Structure formats: structure tokens, C-alpha cells
Amino acid sequence: MSGVYQCRIVEKEKLSDSLFEFAFVNESLAKDSKPGQFLHIRCGEERLLRRPISISDVRGSVLTFVVEARGGGTRWLCEREAGEPLDILGPLGKGFSIPEGDAIVIGGGVGVPPLLYAAKSVRGRVTAILGFRDSHNMMLLDEFEDVCEKVYVTTEDGGHGIQGLATLPLETLLKEGGYKAVMTCGPHPMMSAVAKLCKQHGVPCQASLEERMACGIGACLVCACATKAANKEQISRVCIDGPVFDAGEVLW
Q1: Quick one: 101 and 142 in the same domain?
Q2: Rounded Cα gap, residues 80 and 95, in angstroms
Q3: How confident is the model at residue 231 (pLDDT cuts 50, 70, 90)?
Q4: Residue 211 pLDDT > 90
Q5: Residue 239 sits in which domain range?
Q6: Which of 2, 153, 179 is nearest to 92 (CA)?
Q7: What is the pTM of this model?
Q8: What is the DSSP string of 73-131?
Q9: Of 37, 66, 92, which marks where a domain is finished?
Q10: Residue 24 in contact with residue 9, Cβ under 8 Å?
Q11: How many domains does the chain have?
């Protein structure tokens, strides 16, 4: 069950010039959170709207999230330090349906963190494919290596791992077979390509979408996206109908 909580930051780690990982303790949030759900965090008294931030991991009563400084709200959040309080509404949204059997998690950029908790929850062997622009923006590699059988890293500039897009190793793995599910989060074009490859190889795929949000509880329709059900197009709300969708239902 979601609620509003006053939480205190217990740890902050700088991952790059614009990426930071935060940890806080809240037993109720930790107990109720599912992989793929998000937190709606208030970013300063002068900003009316909260910012949606995906949960990256839950360890006992400790939750972590990664935030990138993009605008005024996220820059404010990135400037917080250990010991400072956060006003958090959550957990929100529909998370991943954790598969039975071997699975692939594939993330791009800031879409990587939400997949860590999902990877930890899979009841089978997990292979991770983590795509980044360059080596300066890589994150959470050690954490994924701790829970995954294999971790493939791609960088667009070739500075680390495989040069190219994250879909390159995915296509190879799907051709080899044996995987029961794919879970993905990242840039829209990447997830669209992942969904197409999974459909070609007959592997179920779940995609975690990112859209601008205002209320976070389905009232304002700011985060509307186009989906289909029973071959009929419809408008879904990322905040409550997602953020995780069956990739085959999303009108990419």
C-alpha cells in the first residue's frame, strides 16, 4: 500500500558528474515495494510537482534509487546529502511480473537501475545487458555481477565492453534460445527494438516506460501513452497502468 513518508537519506554516492545514488531506510516502503515500481519525491518547497524516480534496489529495510540531474527538480534532489530528509509518496505503479526460469534484463542509461531489483527477484538464471553512451556514464556493474550469471556491457563509443547498441548481444542471446522472459527499461527507441526482437523470437517481453508525470496517481493524464488490448487501441496511464507494460501491447 502506498503512502507519504518522511525519510532520511543514509547514504549518497556519486556515480558520475550528473548521476547519484541515494539510500534511505523505511520499513513500510521496503516491505510494500515491488520491482519496477517508483517513488514520487518532493523536490523543494517551491516546486509543486513531485518527481518520479524508480526504485533500484531493496535490501531489508533499505531502499536505493539513482537520479540524474536533468532539470531544476532533479538537480535539487542531486544536491541533497546524507542526513537530510525526503518527502516520498510511494510505492507507486505496476511493476514487473517476475518470471519463472531464465531471463534477460536489458537496460539503457538511466533505465539500468530499475532492473537491478528485478534481476534479484527472478526465479532462475539472469543475464544482464547494460548499455551506456560511454564509460563515464556506466553504473551498478558490480551490483549486477553479484546477482547475474552473465553481464554484457555495451558503450556507443567503444570505451568499454562491446561497441554498439545493447540490442547487439540481445539478438545473439535470443538466437541461442533458452530464455523465458525479457525485462527492459531505457530509451524509447531501444525498448522498441527490444520488443521487436523478442516478438521475432517468441520470447515474452515487459517494458518499463518513462513519461512526464504530475500527480503520479492517475488523475491528471499527463503521462498518457498509446497501447492496445484485444486489438483495440486505447490510452493508458503510465503511473498506474504501468510503468511496466507487456511490450506487445505498447504502440511504439
Answers
A1: yes
A2: 27
A3: confident
A4: no
A5: 209-252
A6: 2
A7: 0.95
A8: HHHHHHT--TT-EEEEEEEESB---PPBS-EEEEEEGGGSTHHHHHHHH-BS-EEEEEE
A9: 92
A10: yes
A11: 3
